[in-house]
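job 3f2a | input accepted
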Amino acid sequence: MQARKLKKEYDEAIEEAKKLSADPYAYQKTVDEVVKNLKEIIEDLDGNNTDKDSLQKLADESNTKDSNSKYYNADSDKQAAYNKAVEEAKATLAKENVSQAEVDAEKTKLQEAKDALNGVDTDKSKLQELSDESATKDSNAKYYNADADKQAAYDKAVEEAKAVLAKENVTQTEIDAAKAKLQEAKDALNGDQTTKEKLQALADESNTKESNTKYYNADVDKQEEYNKAVEEAKAVLAKENVTQAEVDAAKAKLQQAKDALNGADTNKEALQSLADESATKDTNAKYYNADAEKQTAYNKAVEEAKAVLAKENATQTEIEAAKVKLQEAKDALNGADTNKSKLQELSDESAAKDSNSKYYNADAEKQTAYNKAVEEAKATLAKENVSQEEVDAAKAKLQEAKNALNGSDTNKEALQNLADESNGKDSNAKYYNADSEKQAAYDKAVEDANKVLAKENVMQAEVDAAKAKLQEAKDTLNGVDTNKEALQNLADESATKDSNAKYYNADADKQEAYNKAVEEAKSVLAKENVTQAEVDAAKVKLQEAKDALNGADTDKAELKLLVDNSSELQKYC
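job 3f2a | predicted structure (573 res):
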């Protein structure tokens, strides 16, 4: 009865001990009390019971294996061997009436498996070191100048590494995996050292802005924008660990502000031209005929303009102010210019003289007089400081020469009529029976006449010359009316061919050739406006065909002899 009670107490104490052993927050005092109570119960048990304590304690250690680096960092085969030994030990401890030999054997086996566990404490140092580097990432160009996606990948790997480092009982495998990932993310960072040279160069340009027309002639608001961008650029250049993005942004802003400067090179051209005009003032009626006080004001404005033109880095505003003052002084000069307009107008008319029949059909001496007056007028117009009297005299002379031109409109009528006659040349024996060279000369004269008639502003002399040439070519045509008589006589002979032995006794092919030549001759004779050449050709052909007829007079002698001898034959009948 007592043994059963002790066994019950022992079992209860063991269960309490197991729970306490599994409690990570158990107090030492509580543990000591449970140990003491358990030992007392064991002592009360029969001294001859099998001693399982050592095995039980060794087996109970397995409850904390997952927090023991010797286990969780051991080789997997050694972990498997240890787990197996633990299970076998638990089976032995649970076995009823187990012998001390069995318990001792299992304890030895479990101890060996435990001792074989080769895990060491997880080494976090390299991962920790790699993770700690992230604390200085914002001063590391490899990070802050890296692509955004690579920065994000690195940041994520750092956070994951920190989580692994904070994990309780983390394995070496987890640590190594996190380290490899973080190292890969770190190596992938592609930021280069921030390049400030271009921004520095752009900012340094501002040192010479006061001698740069793009700046000092720019609009005030654009100057202010530029100055602000320069200051911001200098602040970026002075910033520690500045990113390339910041530098590039400042450079872009400064470049934009620089490009927006709209000052052009100071344009002195108009003022220079205006000032240079003063060099000819003594030949300018507006000046030398002006009031004295206006001349003085003009001279002063010229001197001030020259001083501004000579000034280094003169602004456009200064130039414009000097120009306005000089222009006003110039405009105030009240000397009147010599009036050349009417002479100029009369002189300019000469440009169209070759299309004016009054000129081109005028007598040669009148043309010469007009041309001379025009040249003298042009010389007067080109003369420096010419007087109104000279201009008026040249105008009067030119007007007189113009009025003396006696040309009238060109008369083309006679030439037109003569040229139009050529339209009927092919029905005119004078043309179509003329010698070929005379026909060619006439055709060319007609062509030349038509060109003259089509010519714009043609002179009467040209028309008259073309008319004379065409009349001469026409008069030279030596064609006479076509003489058909000989051909007609020859053709008429064919009417008696059937009573002409030369024809009816001729070879058939020769008769056919003769008949054909007769028909062709008749066609030529019937042709309107037939040329002598055609008639002569038909006559030659017909004569040849006639001459070729080879018929001879019919030979009746033998027949006559037979007829004559017929009376003698009758005597014998």
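job 3f2a | The chain has a mean pLDDT of 88.
job 3f2a | closed
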